[in-house]
Automatic annotation (TrEMBL):
Span of domain Peptidase C51: 104-230
Taxonomic path: Bacteria, Bacillati, Actinomycetota, Actinomycetes, Propionibacteriales
InterPro entries (UniProt xref): CHAP_dom, Papain-like_cys_pep_sf
Protein's recorded name: CHAP domain-containing protein
Superkingdom field: Bacteria
Signal peptide: 1-25
Length: 566
């Protein structure tokens, strides 16, 4: 086929998609990982092609003498008979036999019939993008019931899938996950693909009927190329963790110690009214896992942070120098938790890369106890963090979320794990555990569907969640603190703005918006106090930190530079 024919075929392919696949022009590629059961099977209707006509031999080639029709020239051997036509060749794309002396068959429509049927077992068209993604959802995600009329809705063409998913309550957003459905409305009837890998700012998808009509391919594109349907993800993005713009611990004089990890992985600690200083080796710590901070009874910080290679380093200043030591293993996407026990010694919790939750205590001799395993091994979420805090009675509570979104709580050393009822929690949002000035202990937590619930501790039992209004990002963690005598929560809304609301259901808040983030659903805000300055909400916008007094009541005020180093 000449260049003109190739360009024409590319235009046909780019404009064609039936019941769910869009075809785009691109390099033809085949991959060994194509396990679609019907790869290369069936036939598509093809564009009619003119028959191959055998050329008529010229009189000279046949040895005929002019003026002597039908007779051969004297002394000239008659030519041999023409060779037989070559055997037909099977075209793997169209499924038709064709004469190799002519052009390959061209599919008139991107529809393949197998045994007289054009529909796969789930009601999608063979070898189209929706059929392949349906196969992936069954084979990799374990969605055995997924089909064209899944949960009573007609999914149909790829352009419909995001709307159907939203109506059914599934999360549809701009954040990819392994096993999510990548969807776009581009093309005549849209396109869907299956997310197989995620890089910094990129996503790799597997798909059918895109670069190769009715065939398999993979490509790596910017994340913004698709929207993502979270029907039953295999795993969250490795770039989504328990990050927070700043972690604060208030001291007894109205200020906050703060700690954070910058975008380059450097850990920075600041005492109230002082600039931040580097702690530990530079560019070592995970930028997607927030550090943990608490203050000793002497007002000195105990600090713990996760490194890029999954170590938890912890320490406190000794003789004017803060030295971090390895105390646990952690998933690089999971923050550790640290709190003081009744004895005033620190207690640390961490989730290992395989999802095993352990706790360790600082002993009287300055060493750390042996790890104590909590719950079943390899069952806890690795993109969220355990939470430790002390209630008004001095009991230390541990709260953690499993990889399936089940929340458990335990009063350490006294009770067994208790499962907290309610809908599944987000596996990428760390809950907030706080005890306010009235002695009430509450747990604020974002669900997998973006609702923000509040539980209250009564004795040793936790209430069922009550809900705050609004929709919230399931990838960001809420921060809770007292503002003007009332408990408030700062969290990232579903649209990406950081919002401050009353943290108690039914409490009417006079607080307006906090520092607006850049629309990134994965960035969590922080709350900190400044001496004689009140409470500030801090959010990250690119490489900058933006802050605003949390008690501001003007909704349209713009965020300002922090003016101090958190």
């Amino acid at each position: 086929m000449g260049k003109t024919g190739i360009r024409w075929l590319a235009r046909v392919v780019a404009a064609t998609c039936l019941a769910s696949g869009v075809a785009g022009a691109g390099a033809v590629a085949a991959y060994a990982s194509d396990d679609y059961p019907w790869a290369g099977e069936g036939q598509c209707p093809i564009v009619p092609q003119p028959p191959i006509e055998e050329p008529e031999p010229s009189p000279e080639a046949s040895g005929q003498q002019p003026g002597n029709p039908g007779g051969a020239a004297p002394g000239v051997e008659p030519p041999p008979p023409p060779p037989p036509p070559p055997p037909p060749v099977l075209d793997p794309v169209s499924g038709h036999l064709y004469d190799p002396r002519g052009p390959r068959p061209t599919c008139a429509r991107q529809v393949w019939s197998i045994d007289g049927s054009i529909g796969d077992p789930w009601g999608f068209v063979w070898r189209n993008c929706t059929s392949f993604v349906s196969w992936r959802l069954h084979e990799r995600n374990g969605m055995a019931g997924f089909a064209n009329h899944f949960r009573g809705e007609h999914w149909g063409n790829a352009e419909n899938w995001d709307d159907v998913a939203r109506r059914l309550g599934y999360r549809v957003d701009s954040v990819p996950a392994i096993g999510a459905v990548a969807q776009t409305d581009a093309g005549r009837v849209g396109h869907v693909a299956w997310v197989s890998d995620i890089g910094p700012g990129t996503v790799t998808v597997e798909e059918y009927n895109h670069a190769l009509p009715g065939g398999y391919g993979t490509r790596t594109v910017p994340v913004a190329e698709f929207r993502y349907l979270h029907l039953d993800d295999v795993a969250p993005s490795p770039y989504v963790g328990s990050d927070r713009s700043v972690v604060a611990a208030p001291d007894s004089r109205g200020g906050s110690w703060t700690v954070r990890v910058d975008d380059r992985g450097t850990l920075r600690l600041a005492r109230p009214g002082r600039p931040a200083r580097t702690v530990g080796p530079r560019r070592t710590f995970s930028p997607v896992a927030a550090p943990a901070l608490t203050l000793s009874r002497k007002g000195l910080p105990w600090l713990a942070a996760t490194t890029r290679d999954g170590r938890v380093l912890a320490g406190t200043p000794r003789r004017g120098r803060l030295v971090l030591r390895r105390v646990a293993r952690s998933a690089p996407t999971a923050s550790p938790a640290v709190a003081l026990s009744r004895t005033g010694r620190p207690l640390l919790a961490a989730v290992s890369p395989d999802g095993t939750l352990v706790t360790r205590r600082l002993t009287l001799h300055g060493g750390w106890s042996r790890p104590t395993r909590v719950g079943r091994p390899a069952s806890w979420g690795t993109h969220t963090a355990p939470v430790l805090d002390t209630d008004a009675r001095g009991r230390t509570w541990l709260v953690a979320v499993t990889e399936r979104g089940t929340t458990f709580a335990q009063s350490l050393g006294r009770t067994r794990l208790q499962r907290l009822g309610g809908p599944p929690a987000s596996p990428t949002s760390t809950p907030a555990l706080t005890t306010d000035s009235t002695g009430t202990t509450r747990l604020h937590q974002v669900t997998a569907t973006g609702r923000l619930g509040v539980r209250t501790l009564d004795g040793r039992r936790w209430s069922r969640p009550e809900w705050l209004s609004g929709q919230w990002s399931p990838y960001a963690s809420p921060a809770v603190g007292e503002v003007a005598g009332d408990l408030h929560v700062a969290a990232t809304a579903a649209g990406g703005a950081v919002v401050v609301r009353g943290a108690v259901p039914g409490q009417r808040s006079q607080v307006g918006r906090g520092a607006r983030a850049a629309g990134d659903l994965t960035l969590s805000p922080g709350l900190l106090t400044r001496r004689d300055g009140g409470v500030y909400v801090v959010a990250r916008a690119g490489a900058r930190l933006l802050a605003r007094p949390a008690a501001a009541v003007v909704d349209d005020s713009v965020p300002t530079s922090a003016g101090f180093t958190p």
